[in-house]
Each structure stands twice: as structure tokens, then as C-alpha cells.
Amino acid sequence: MNIIEVQNVTKKYSNHLALDNISLSIRKGIVYGLLGPNGAGKTTLIRILNQITAPDSGTVLFNGNPLSRKDVEKIGYLPEERGLYKKMKVGEEAMYLARLKGLSKEDALERLKYWFIKFEIQNWWNKKVEELSKGMQQKLQFIITVVHRPDFLILDEPFSGLDPINTNLIRQELLELKRQGTTIIISTHNMASVEEICDEICLINKAHKILEGNLMEVKHQFKENIFSLTLSAEREIPVFPEAFSVLETSSSRNQCHYVVKVHEGGNSNQLLKFVMDYGNVLEFNEILPSMNDIFIQQVEKYNSEFKIQNPNE
Amino acid sequence: MNNTLLIISREYLTRVKKKSFIILTLLVPLLLAALMVVPVLLATKGREHVNVMVVDDNEIYINNFIEDEKTSFSYRSGDIEQIKKEALAGDYDVVLYFPQSSQKVNANMYYNEEPSMYLRSELESQINNMFFDHVLQDSFHIDLDKYKTIKDLARSQITMIQIDEYGDEKESMAEMNKSIGMICGFIIYFVIFFFSGQVLRGVLEEKNNRIVEVLISSVKPIELLLGKIIGIALVGLTQFLIWIVFTLVILTGVQIAMPEKFMELSGVDKEQLMETVRDSQVVEAVNNSQMVAGDIDAGGIFAEISNYFPISFTEMILCFLFFFLTGYLMYSALFAAVGSAADNETDSTQLTMPITMPLLLTIVLVMPIADNPNGPLAFWLSIIPLTSPVAMLTRLPSGVPLWEVLLSMVLMLLFFVFVVWFAAKVYRTGILMYGKKVSWKEIWKWVRHQ
Q: Which of A64, A198, A289, A301 lies at a 20 to 30 A Cα distance from A237?
């Protein structure tokens, strides 16, 4: 079951195309990574999902029905540019924003209390927002985003500006929310966090979707048959067969370490058999490309093709 | 709707709870009351009993000064230096000395403590009258009684009577209507700017600290826009209400605490009234009311004044509220639109220029409008929606035909609907635009879009 289905969505601004016929679907209960370089159209897509702007054409389905105004109560949104009323008191501001999401006064108070105790920030309630540090404001903003228990969370760069402790705290909370069934979409440039928490990813570039799928499947799709192995051996292997090429070697204290690419026609078993003759295999595993590598490689590939097709741009 | 109410209450409460709001709200009635009470206190302070010693070397004024309960006169002749010393050391507050002189009225006043202005002007007017009579009699041998009879006969007066559309006649006070109109024009200009400016700053604040994106993921931009505008309107109305109530409470308090002085307050108000209308030809009308000034109370004086208006106070206040509300709503919606398009206050002033021009123009033209409240300039400015709040309020005290007021009101409402439609379109796009200097051309594009 998909919580979100984006169907052929196009959005044009006066002088450029932000989204060109984009379709994607997000399964319920997963963490979905929305990736792409600056200006790719991510923010526009997020704004469309939030009904801040409307698409020029195409539709967005939420739980199978066209996205409507009442759905805002089921969506939580953390924008990239964080913002709060600086002069308001923390408690009042949190209450106000929670109630705008449709919570009653009593519910809002009860749930905010829960979060304030959980994050150990009860004593902030009567402080002014401007008195809080940037990290504290981020925590408050996170609480405001999730306080109405949305089914669907949209987070734009949720970890930016957080110290490692708070990053960990927020990541734990996100995983907890996922366990409870919340679907989360994360837009970020931080590829390390993508690998840690995303189940599926989508890569957008120049208003087009250029890649989508399960994180591990995508990594396998772009693997280059590179293996890392460590032998306990007296001496280095002098020559590898033609099916393999060595990318890196290093040796120390009777251990030799290799990074080897297996060319077409060869496979990992043949590599393993070959190296076994030279010593005991201590470690043997496949190196999958990082999301960082895939991101750079795919975007650059797309951009060079784009240039050929649109020489004027 | 629920969301709009939430927004209204936030906008209202955060402003009303601000220290600056509380201070301004309490201070203005105090200032207003002080403006009315302090001059009275100052004026009455000097009205203690005064003993005047008159020394007249010409013997014109001896035994001729008119006494009242606060001023008594004694007369002596002899060496001024000696009398002066003795009198001021004794029971006398003031020594008035007329040295030997044939033509001019010259007098010296000796005192230890400076006497009130009132005493001085009172003495001057008595001296002038006496000298005039003395010259008529002694130099021209004119019989005083005859002279006074002739003078009374020849006192011309023009009473201004305005006939309204129902044929009712009302004595008018053109000068006073003019100044009241100008004051009303200035007040409405000020309050419209003051409160629309708050809307502009509110929009800029939300845009600058980026909370607007969180807000419009929960509510529609139009709800946010209307919530803000209505919330601030309520702040304004609250402030007016407190001002009116407080000023009345303070004045009533003063009246109860010092009833005898408040009596004089009414009297002083009459004199100020006289001052205002001195040049108009309705002195007689005021003189008539002066006669009853003795037993007039604060409410009475308003009723008295309102007799000379072509429009009642209730009508005036209702019109003020209507034009304040519609004028404020219109300008604040326009300001909000502009605020949403700008990134900071400097940029916004550039964009607000074309909007504020009509209002500035009207305030510059308030004098000519008040001078000729039914001329073509006044007529057109009070019909055109952008200028009508100030222009109409300036004209109203002088009397405006009902159909013109209604036409102006209807046009205001129609234009307001258009402005809200326009503002909503611009606002929706503008609040999400960052880092781009927006021109009016660009804004027009947003409006036409979709």
C-alpha cells in the first residue's frame, strides 16, 4: 500500500521548469530518501506534497485519494529553513502551532508535555524562543513537527546544524516513529545519513527523476564487482590472472590486503580460489558503491547527456 | 475558520500583552486628560484673592476700578516710593502706579510675587475702558450714555445658517467645523498608517524568520492573511475603546474630586471655543451659550456644541469607525501583499510608495478640502477609495449629502473586495520568494498567473 503516489506531476515557474512529469510512489511505513543536487526540484516537490503550491498538471494521491486540505493534519513538515516566532514563549508557540494542526487544547498540552519530558526540556516552557540556542530551537522544531502524530513526515535536511548527540537523538526518534508505522520522507545532501536510515531512495536532477528504488538494490545495481580481501601470507602475490585487476595493495606484519576488480567473465569464487593458494583468507567481501559515489556519478552522467541534448543550456 | 480564529487570537494576544501596547494604551488617556485638566488647574491657581493698591497721579482712575470677589482695590496718593514699600510689606499683593502723563496710558505694577496673567489682562482691559471713557468726556465732551446707546445700535452680526437636505436649519460654525474636520482627517490618517504598518511588519517578520513555511503547511495563505489583518484591527479597536473609556473615567474622577474647579473647566472650554470662533461671525451664538455656562456640565457642553454641527456625534463616530475599518483593511491588505513580496523593510518601503502616495496626497490636501468642503477636489477625493477615508472624514463635520457618503462607502467596500483578492494572490506567491528583488511588474505577473 502506498501512502503517497505522485503521478505525472509538472510544475513550471515563470522562467524555469521545476518538475517535469515526475511520478513516484512511497510505500507505507518506510523511510524514503529524496536526493538531488541544489535546484533539482526537491523543494518544489516537497511544497506540492505539503499543498503549499499546486502542480500545473498531474495528481498526488494520499492514501489512495487525491491530496486534500484535511490531509494537512496527517502530515508533519520540517522545512529546511527553520523558523519560529522569536518573541513568543516556547510553550505558547508550541501550543499555537500544534493547534493549527488540528489538535484540541487539551490534546496539544498533553502531547507537548510528553515530548518536553522526553527531551528533558520542561524548564524551557516559559522561556522566550530567542533565549534558546540554535540546537535547542531545532529540538523544539522537531517536536512541533511530530506533535500531532502525523502518518506522513516530510523532513528537509533534518540533521543540519545538530551536534552528534542531538543527531543521534533525532535519528533514534525517527526510527521509533517508523516502528510505530509513520512513513518518513527525508530530503538531504548528507549521504551518510541516507545509508543509515533510508529504505528507499529517489534521485532527482534537473526536474527529472533519474533513479529510484530500494537502497540495497540501487547499490547492487551500480556495483562494479570490486572485492576487498586480506590474506595471512609471507609474501605478496606476484601476478594476478587477466580476469582480475588490482586497484590497491598494502601489506603489514604478514598480512596482505588487496582491493580487486573482477572483470566480466570472472567471478568472486575464482578470485577466492586463486588467492587461497597464497595463504589463509582472513577477510573477503564485496565493496558496494556508496550513495555518495552513485549520486555524483549519476548526476554527472545525466548532466553530460543533458548538455548534448540541450547544447544551449 | 477555526484556524483563522486561532491566528486572530495569536495576533491579538501577542500584541496586547506587549509592554509597549500597555504603556501606550495607559499613557494616551492620561495625556489627554492632563491636556484638559492641567490648563484649568493652572488658570485657577492664580485666582486667589488679590489686594490691589492704586496710586494715580492723574486722578483718572481713583475709585473707578470694578471689584469682584477675588479682587479688591484701595486708593492712595502721595510718594510712590514710600507707598510701594509700605503696601507690599503690608496686606497688598500689587501696587498699580500711574505716573503723571497727558496722553498715553502708562502704568507700573509693583509686586513681590508675580500676579496671574488673568489679573494683568483684567486690569489692562479695565484701564483701557476707563481711559477711553475719560478721553471721550474730557477731550471731546461727548456724553457717555449717548455714545453707548449709539454703539449698541450699530453692532452688526451675521449668523450662519445651513439648511440641510430635509430643509432643517442649523446655525453653523464654519471655522470650528473646518478644524474638527482637519483633526479627524489627521487622526484617521495616523491610525490607518499605524495599524497597517503593523500588518506589514508582521508579514515581514514571518517571512524573514521563515516560520511562514511551517504555517502555510497547516493553514491556507488567505487564512493567515485575514487572521493577521483582523487580529491587528481588534488590537486597534481595543486601544480606541480603552482610550475613550479611560479618558472619560479620568475626567469624571477629576470632576468628582474637584467639582468647583470643573465648573470653571466648562467655563474655560467656552473661552477656548470663543478663541476658535473669534473671527467667525457667530460670536453672538457663543455669547448666548456663555450666559448659561454657569450651570453647564461636561455632557451639556458637548450637547451645546453639537447644536452647531450639521452631523451628530453618533453619526460622526460611526462614520469614523466605518472609514477606519475599511481604510485600514484596504491598506493593510495592500501592505501585506507588498510585505510578502519584499525581503526586508528597506525593499518594502520602495514597494509601498505607490500605495501610500494617495494617502500622503490627501493629507497634504487636507487644508484645501477643509476650506472648501463641497468643492470638486473634496468631492472626488472623498469618493475615490484610496483617498476617501481621510477626505471624507475631513468633510463630514461641515455636512456632506447622504448620497455622497453612501456612494463613498459602497465604493470602499467594492474596492476592498478587489484589494483582498489582489493581496491574496500576491501574498500566496510572495511569501515563498526569497533572495529576489521584486518589482511591481513582477507582482502583476503573479496576479495574472492562473
A: A289
